[in-house]
């Protein structure tokens, strides 16, 4: 029973009809190129070998011969055999140009298909290494073709091989190991050693070129264009611009820019283009429309339309422009508009403002080339404490020193008695700003008398007059609107532009209601467009360069001449009468009347004439004569005589004063 079971197991374990059939091909581990070498082909079978077949697949190997002549038409075969396994079928001789292989395929033994048999043929090479532009390519002596992708800014590639008797050939048809390849293209260099083994290196130039066609900057004339994603831009230029230059720069430094240069401009629209070509060959066109304006007819006007000096808007454009700026301003900054914007404004843009007076000239031209010069008088204030016109703030600031309060012409010009009482020995200055922020005038209050004044003070000023006698081109009128006499003097500073010459000494006169002006100060200095003086009477004043001298009119002169003639005739009459009828009493009477009615100088003159007929050696006793005349007058002079004497004396006195 047990024997039967083991027999059955044996039948299951040992397959029926399975044979260990195969081919073997044994070749040298390495061979020399193009030299013969031999390989042995064996067959193995579980039974006798009756027949076999195999086709030969030769790679880089060529058949030369075999010992048993079993090779024919690319295959080996035989039948009708009885060979004991394993059997050596034949020895075959081959040659190899490069490393390769020999494969027995589609093989069968005794009609049974078997696995392929393969022999690898390794050919010794005279080339030991290959590099491209100095870089390794992963060389192996039995690998004969290489495909690499590499970049070169110049486009040149150099293949270098290490070995004996190396020769090169490139796809451009030359024998150089250097080849120039365009972006994205492939070039080939072959390397042959002295053993004839050929290696092929296929090089593809990597396309690292950028396709960037954007612009980094664009300048049209003097204007830098703010670039966006747009491809069209418009620029407007004044009529005087007859030529314009385009300057464009590409973002990619290797991109090419076409269209830069100068262009003539016609009036109206001028179409210009900038073309950017990227490294990769892509193109982008940017269109620029430059509009040249037509000429502007100014109709006789100057070209400067508006002006702003360091933030101060100029209200009226004149030949000389005055402006006040704060102490914080350092550099001159002008903003302006032109009627004809084809014109230009030229000035010293690097001018540094100094404290006090700054005189700057600007030149303005229009499109036709006509120019006009303006003088800017820029008054930069000195550093000082300025507070708002608030009573509590002023009083608080006065506790720490001198204070300046700044007002506009619309503000009330009143300092309250409460503020005056808190001067504390300090100076309080009110500055009134006029046009263009120029300080038109200031009034400074200080001193114990004002602290104790106990009244508000209105110091408003107008620079005109309502008095006909004060209207004169040579006068500069200063009129305090509220006539006030103060207990002490205040300091007044007045802006007078350019009415006088710098450092002129001026006369300051006061109008006090009479027909004549009273001189207050004969040396008020005009300096840097301002005058300073001290007054305690807020009333009406005039400043003038020339002293005011009152002269007589024609009528007073005629009256004086008439009086002189009358006096002369009367004196002549008296002298003649006295000669004809020399009466001492009459002389004394006349002398008395003259002495009572005329002043001493005239009296002396008349006395001399009256007594001119007397002997020179006889000295008249005038005092005695006068006493006698006085007595006679008291006793006998009639009203008619007194009236005549009064008229005579009046004429004499008036005549004498006018002659003085």
Largest sheet: 9 strands, mixed
What structural class do you assign from the helix and strand content? Answer: alpha+beta
Fraction of helical residues: 10-25%
The DSSP helix count reads 9
Termini gap:
190 Å
Q: Nearest-angstrom radius of gyration?
A: 65 Å
* Mean pLDDT over the full residue set: 83
Quantity of strands, as a count: 44
Oligomer: single chain
Would you give an account of this structure?
18% of the residues lie in helices and 43% in strands. The chain is α+β, with helices and mostly antiparallel strands. The strands form ten sheets. Strands 34, 35, 37, 38, 40, 41, 42, 43 and 44 form a nine-stranded mixed sheet that branches. Strands 1, 3, 4, 5, 6, 7, 8 and 9 form an eight-stranded antiparallel sheet that branches. Strands 12-11-14-16 form a four-stranded antiparallel sheet, with no helix packed on it. Strand 37 and strand 38 form a beta hairpin. Mean pLDDT is 83; it is low at 1-19, 585-599, 604-620, 632-653 and 655-660.
Attribute tags:
9 helices, alpha+beta, 9-stranded mixed beta sheet, disordered C terminus, disordered N terminus
Write the layout of secondary structure elements.
Elements: H1 2-13, E1 22-26, E2 31-32, E3 36-44, E4 52-66, E5 71-72, E6 75-78, E7 87-109, E8 112-113, E9 117-121, E10 123-124, E11 127-132, E12 135-136, E13 145-150, E14 156-163, E15 167-170, E16 178-180, E17 186-192, E18 198-205, E19 215-220, E20 223-224, E21 232-237, E22 243-250, E23 256-258, E24 261-264, E25 268-277, E26 283-292, E27 304-309, E28 312-313, E29 320-325, E30 334-338, E31 344-346, E32 356-365, E33 371-380, E34 386-387, H2 391-398, E35 403-408, E36 414-415, H3 417-420, E37 428-433, E38 439-445, H4 448-451, E39 457-458, E40 461-462, E41 476-495, E42 504-511, E43 517-527, E44 530-544, H5 554-580, H6 584-597, H7 600-610, H8 622-636, H9 639-659
Parallel strand pairs: 2-10, 13-18, 21-26, 29-33, 34-35, 35-37
Antiparallel strand pairs: 1-3, 3-7, 4-6, 4-7, 5-6, 7-8, 7-9, 11-12, 11-14, 14-16, 15-17, 17-18, 19-20, 19-22, 22-24, 23-25, 25-26, 27-28, 27-30, 31-32, 32-33, 36-39, 37-38, 38-41, 40-41, 41-44, 42-43, 42-44, 43-44
């Amino acid at each position: 029973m047990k024997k039967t079971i083991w027999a059955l197991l044996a039948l299951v374990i040992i397959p029926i009809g399975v044979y260990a059939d195969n081919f073997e091909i044994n070749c040298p581990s390495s061979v020399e190129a193009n030299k013969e070498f031999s390989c042995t082909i064996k067959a193995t079978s579980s039974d006798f070998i009756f027949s076999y077949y195999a086709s030969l697949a030769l790679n880089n190997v060529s058949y030369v011969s075999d010992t048993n002549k079993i090779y024919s038409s690319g295959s080996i075969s035989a039948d009708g055999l009885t060979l004991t396994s394993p059997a050596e079928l034949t020895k075959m001789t081959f040659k190899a140009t490069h490393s390769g292989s020999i494969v027995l395929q589609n093989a069968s033994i005794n009609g049974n298909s078997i696995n392929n048999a393969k022999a690898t043929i390794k050919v010794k090479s005279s080339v030991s290494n290959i590099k491209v532009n100095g870089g390794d390519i992963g060389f192996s002596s039995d690998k004969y073709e290489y495909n690499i992708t590499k970049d070169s800014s110049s486009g040149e590639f150099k293949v270098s091989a290490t070995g004996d008797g190396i020769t090169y050939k490139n796809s451009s048809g030359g024998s150089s190991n250097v080849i120039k390849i365009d972006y994205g293209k492939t070039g080939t260099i072959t390397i042959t050693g002295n053993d004839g083994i050929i290696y092929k290196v296929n090089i593809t130039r990597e396309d690292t070129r950028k396709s960037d066609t954007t612009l980094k900057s664009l300048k049209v004339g003097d204007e830098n264009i703010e670039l966006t994603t747009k491809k069209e831009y418009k620029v407007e230029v004044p009529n005087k611009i007859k030529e314009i230059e385009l300057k464009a720069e590409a973002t990619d430094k290797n991109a090419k820019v076409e269209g830069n240069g100068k262009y003539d401009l016609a009036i109206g629209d001028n179409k210009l283009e900038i073309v950017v070509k990227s490294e990769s060959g892509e193109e982008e066109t940017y269109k620029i429309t430059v509009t040249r304006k037509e000429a502007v007819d100014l109709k006789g006007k100057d070209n400067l339309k508006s002006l702003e000096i360091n933030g101060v808007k100029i209200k009226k454009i004149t030949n000389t422009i005055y402006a006040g700026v704060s102490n914080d301003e350092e550099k001159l900054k002008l903003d302006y508009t032109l009627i004809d914007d084809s014109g230009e404004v030229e000035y010293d843009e690097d001018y540094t403002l100094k404290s006090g007076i700054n005189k700057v000239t600007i030149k303005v031209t229009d499109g036709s080339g006509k120019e006009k010069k303006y003088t800017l008088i820029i008054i930069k204030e000195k550093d000082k404490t300025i507070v708002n016109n608030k009573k509590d703030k002023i009083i608080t600031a006065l506790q720490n020193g001198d204070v300046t309060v700044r007002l506009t012409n619309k503000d009330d010009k009143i300092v309250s008695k409460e503020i005056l009482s808190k001067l504390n020995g300090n100076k309080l200055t009110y500055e009134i700003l006029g046009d263009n922020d120029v300080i038109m005038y200031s009034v400074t209050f200080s001193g114990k008398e004002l602290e104790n004044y106990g009244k508000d003070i209105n110091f408003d000023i107008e620079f005109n007059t309502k008095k006909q006698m004060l209207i004169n081109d040579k006068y500069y009128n200063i009129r305090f609107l509220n006539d006030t006499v103060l207990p002490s003097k205040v300091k007044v500073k007045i802006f007078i532009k350019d009415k006088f010459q710098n450092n002129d000494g001026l006369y300051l006169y006061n109008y006090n209601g009479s027909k004549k002006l009273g001189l207050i100060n004969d040396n008020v200095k005009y300096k840097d467009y301002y005058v300073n003086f001290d007054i305690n009477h807020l009333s009406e004043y005039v400043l003038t360069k020339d002293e005011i001298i009152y002269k007589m009119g024609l009528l007073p002169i005629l009256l004086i001449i008439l009086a002189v003639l009358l006096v002369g005739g009367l004196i002549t009459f008296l002298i003649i009468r006295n000669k004809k009828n020399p009466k001492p009493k009459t002389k004394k009477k006349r002398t008395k009347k003259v002495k009572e009615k005329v002043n001493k100088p005239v009296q002396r003159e008349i006395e001399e004439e009256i007594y001119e007929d007397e002997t020179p050696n006889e000295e008249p006793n005038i005092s005695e004569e006068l006493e006698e005349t006085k007595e006679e007058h008291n006793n006998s002079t009639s009203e008619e005589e007194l009236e005549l004497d009064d008229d005579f004396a009046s004429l004499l006195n008036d005549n004498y004063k006018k002659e003085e």
